[in-house]
Design a protein that fits this description.
The protein is an alpha+beta fold. It has helices spanning 27-33, 55-62, 113-124, 142-146, 176-179, 190-196, 252-260, 271-275, 307-316, 319-327, 352-355, 364-378, 393-409, 422-430, 449-452, 469-478, 486-503, and strands at 11-14, 35-40, 69-71, 77-79, 94-98, 157-161, 164-168, 213-216, 224-229, 243-248, 266-269, 283-296, 332-333, 344-345, 350-351, 383-389, 413-419, 436-442, 506-518, 522-523, 539-540. Belongs to the bacterial solute-binding protein 5 family.
């Protein structure tokens, strides 16, 4: 498959139909008032993409904001704020976008090229707290602006006039067009930034929205909110829902109960709950291009700065048992940092993750030998491993699995689990106060680079501080003029994954497969394997 067609459509598999107990069905009521009830598994920390970046935030913004492009039903970019798909000039290094005349913010102001310029400058500035400034790497001067070596005005993005946006790159980026659907690249209203200042995005009424819906009722800390129609949206004829109601639900059993009661139209279930509902007529499996993994703290003086101890940990975890018995939701073991279905290597014709699967993935005897050798090298007989995760029920179960596997198979290992609210967990991880951190990386666009970026030495998302000169060199080589050479680019991608495996940079656990209970009369949802699910064109039949 050619490089510019790597994005695979969502691999959605309906479970076989079977009778199952179901409670109240609110389908008729939802059909009448066109109100969609959704859940998020975690809190929103901010709606400002220059301040925070997490899945719950992006899920909300996917349905209330738009960038230059949006993903269509096949997962391919289609025009949104931009009037058409743009072909680059200047040997693949310049993109010139024309914005649509009828694009407006929820306060009635027109969306301008300057709104994109301000947003991108804020997100790459040294003061950005999102941890996502790296995603702009390749845009001219982005890395120098982030490092404080150049002012934000030197970023390679400018407004030629109100409706013309010019972006200059440092090298050809084959995946640039696909990146433009990401919330990180969404515009920010200049008027809203001026009006709300430092409080921009801290609550739903502290920003403006340019998508089909606007967020209402989020105060900055509450666990439920609404998305109401944006009366100024340019494509109102295709918007059928009158409202989306969202709430945070961390427990799968609670999600199931809410679905039965008619209080959720799309419920994500996991663990024992999912295991018991695999034949439910409302069940749908959505395979996502994401990997759940353990970040391993490799800072000097920490246990996992020793490569043998890292490898031992990875080899001692029975990932098949985790997927089939603990999760039981259709998930599959992960062996690489890149998920299957993300991308096909066009030079081999094979799925990238499949072709890069290591030959050895589970070997307790070898793990025990490496563990003792590593402890001896560190002058220790025992260690206590600090494990951080958030307090979702399924994540607690995974923590117990890891704890049991490690403590029962590796002599002298003790695992101290901290299952705490997401903010508490992230604060400790950001400060380096952990040995293992349960993490998810969901690819932003359909290319291994979307994953590999975050494990570079100086990447803000590299909380484990993995550092390899060889790995960095492979990524740097792929981010150069040679990116236009398909064979050379994909050789660098294979080399990078091989280096991650050799170093046990992280410990992959399982590939992301979501089990959804979905109301049978809900139609028009765009189930994307890459990025977020798009409910904006959904409706009840």
């Amino acid at each position: 498959m050619k490089l510019n067609k790597l994005l695979l459509s969502a691999s959605v598999v309906l479970a076989s139909l079977a009778t199952a107990a179901c409670g109240n069905n609110n389908a008729s009521a939802n059909k009448k008032d066109q109100t969609l009830h959704l859940m998020q598994t975690g809190e929103i920390l901010s709606l400002d993409t220059s301040n925070q970046a997490n899945i719950s935030q992006w899920n909300v913004l996917e349905n209330s904001m738009e960038g230059l492009y949006r993903a269509d039903k096949e997962g391919n970019p289609s025009p949104a704020m931009a009037t058409k798909l743009v072909k680059p000039t200047d040997h693949g290094k310049r993109y010139t976008f024309t914005l649509r005349k009828n694009a407006k913010w929820s306060n009635g102001d027109p969306v301008t090229a300057e709104d994109f310029v301000n947003s991108w400058r804020r997100s790459v500035s040294p003061s950005s707290q999102s941890g996502y400034s790296y995603i702009f790497t390749g845009v001219k001067n982005a890395t120098k602006v982030t490092a404080g070596k150049l002012p934000a005005k030197d970023l390679g993005v400018k407004a030629l006039n109100n409706r013309t946006l010019q972006v200059d790159l440092e090298y050809p980026m084959p995946y640039f067009t696909r990146m433009m659907v990401l919330p990180a690249f969404f515009p920010q209203s200049k008027a809203a930034l001026t009006k709300f200042g430092k409080s921009y995005g801290s609550a739903s009424n502290k920003m403006y929205y340019n998508g089909p819906f606007k967020v209402d009722g989020w105060t900055g800390s509450n666990l439920s909110w609404d998305l109401d129609q944006n009366k100024y949206y340019y494509d109102k004829k295709d918007i059928h829902l009158k409202k989306m109601k969202m709430q945070v639900v961390k427990d799968a059993n609670t999600a199931h109960q809410l679905f039965q009661q008619g209080n959720l139209d799309d419920a994500t279930i996991t663990g024992i709950t999912a295991q018991g509902l695999q034949k439910d007529k409302n069940l749908m499996h959505l395979k996502r291009a994401g990997v759940y993994y353990l970040q391993l703290n490799q800072r000097q003086g920490r246990v996992f700065s020793n490569s043998k101890l890292r490898e031992a940990l990875s080899l001692v975890l029975d990932k098949k048992h985790l997927a089939e018995k603990v999760l039981a939701d259709g998930s599959e073991p992960a062996y690489t940092f890149v998920a299957p279905t993300l991308a096909k290597d066009p030079t081999t014709g094979k799925d990238f993750a499949t072709e890069m699967k290591p030959s050895e993935n589970y070997n307790v005897k070898k793990a025990q030998k490496l563990w003792q050798e590593g402890l001896k090298e560190e002058g220790k007989k025992s260690v206590t491993l600090t494990y951080y995760t958030d307090d979702q029920t399924i994540n607690k179960n995974i923590a117990q699995f890891v704890q049991s596997q490690v403590e029962s198979k590796l002599k002298g290992a003790d695992v101290e689990v901290h299952a705490v609210p997401a903010k508490n967990s992230q604060d400790n991880v950001s400060k380096g106060n952990f040995d293992m951190h349960f993490s998810l990386w969901l690819a932003d666009y359909a290319d291994p680079m979307s994953d590999f970026d975050i494990l570079q030495t100086n990447n803000a998302q590299n909380y484990g501080k993995y550092s390899s000169k060889a790995y960095d060199n492979y990524i740097s080589a792929a981010k150069s003029k040679s990116a236009a050479d398909v064979k050379q680019y994909w050789q660098n991608m294979r080399n990078a994954q091989s280096q991650l495996t050799k170093d046990t940079a992280v410990a992959p656990l399982y590939n992301m497969t979501e089990s959804h209970l979905v109301r049978s009369n809900l139609k028009g949802v765009l189930w994307h394997s890459v990025g977020e699910v798009d409910y904006t064109r959904a409706y009840f039949k």
